Amino acid sequence: MNDKLNCTALILAAGLSERMGFYKPLLKFSEEITFLEQLIAEAEKAGVPYIIVVANKAVNDIILSRPNFKIGKSRIVVNQQPENGRMSSIKQGLSCLDREDYCILINSDNPFVYAHDLETLMEGRKPNCIVQPVVGERNVHPIIIAPEICSKIILQEDSNRLDYVLGSYSKHAVVLANKKLMYNINTPQQYYDAFGRDISY
């Protein structure tokens, strides 16, 4: 399936980042851009037509205070109750999608999601199915969720875990070569391990 018009990237950026000590989406990917700016840029480079960022109020306020922040064509929606957990952000983002759209679910704690990864995953999408990227023998993110499944996730309780909800659906494994997709950058040490420098923002 090569038509990208029915794809939306949903970037989760509403977490409180308590272990990191600063909001992960706003950590520096390079001297010029943050994790979030990098993820938006790669989604645009891959030709994803719609990009939704679910942020908490503090992250959104910081973005608004930076006139040069590169949000591109993305739309930012604010989760006013991020303490309700990840599922609340996913549901809020999915409610903004067209009912026919596949959702590319991107976590902001791994900025190493590149355009070629997204292009390969989009080619593998199928109805009523989860596209599951695999590096080596490990399942990684981002996943792609079919629209039929997105509509059912919106009905879930905020307390439900996504992996539990998705457990009953078919998975289509797509092998990727990008080993950096195995990173989860949740602490200053993990940031140092990924970048070889102390955290900056």
Architecture overview:
The protein has 201 residues and is an alpha/beta fold. It has one domain: Spore Coat Polysaccharide Biosynthesis Protein SpsA, Chain A, CATH 3.90.550. Helix content is 28%, strand content 21%. The protein has seven helices and eight strands; from the N terminus they run βαβαβαβαβββααβα. It has helices at 35-45, 57-64, 86-94, 115-123, 147-153, 162-166, 188-195, and strands at residues 7-13, 50-56, 75-79, 102-107, 129-135, 138-139, 143-145, 170-175. Strands 1, 2, 3, 4, 5, 6, 7 and 8 form an eight-stranded mixed β-sheet that branches. The longest helix has 11 residues, at 35-45.
Write the topology of this structure:
Elements: E1 7-13, H1 35-45, E2 50-56, H2 57-64, E3 75-79, H3 86-94, E4 102-107, H4 115-123, E5 129-135, E6 138-139, E7 143-145, H5 147-153, H6 162-166, E8 170-175, H7 188-195
Parallel strand pairs: 1-2, 1-4, 2-3, 5-8
Antiparallel strand pairs: 4-7, 5-6, 5-7
Task: Output the keywords.
globular; 201 residues; Spore Coat Polysaccharide Biosynthesis Protein SpsA, Chain A; alpha/beta; 21% strand
Short characterization:
This protein is α/β, with parallel strands linked by helices and 201 residues long. It has helices at residues 35-45, 57-64, 86-94, 115-123, 147-153, 162-166, 188-195; strands at residues 7-13, 50-56, 75-79, 102-107, 129-135, 138-139, 143-145, 170-175.
